[in-house]
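Quick note —
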Amino acid sequence: MKMTKMTALLLAAAMALTACGSTADSAAPALPPLVQAAIADIRANYAGLYGVEELSERLGVSKSHLVRTFTASVGVPPGKYLTTVRIEAAQRLLLHREYTLDVVASLCGFSGANYLCRVFKKETGQSPAQWRALTGRAAQSGLTPEETMREQEMYI
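Predicted structure written out below.
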């Protein structure tokens, strides 16, 4: 249930970004239904999704077909997209909560804190602790009461 609230907020944000992008560039082609379904599944289930093979099975296509179609449409493979979604979720958790790295890793679909740290550093150039120290304090001081309440509903 808690993940559902977070997923709903992530999907709403993604849809808002998509709507903004479509008005700014109406000539951009729509994503194929398979890619739309893959993105929706990744965003809804990133914490429990094992990888691209599981995603392709859920969507009823071969892994190679999914990777080929997704990469051609989005510009990155679905595995990289999944990692990006997981890192974004980890950043949100690190930004607003004092969760341990083990908890953050578990909530974001990483196998453990060590793996989270390795992937996080590769993707952002900083360790989770460095990122939290640099951005967490500034962001927490700028939260409105409504945003604080929304964060508490999402992660507690």
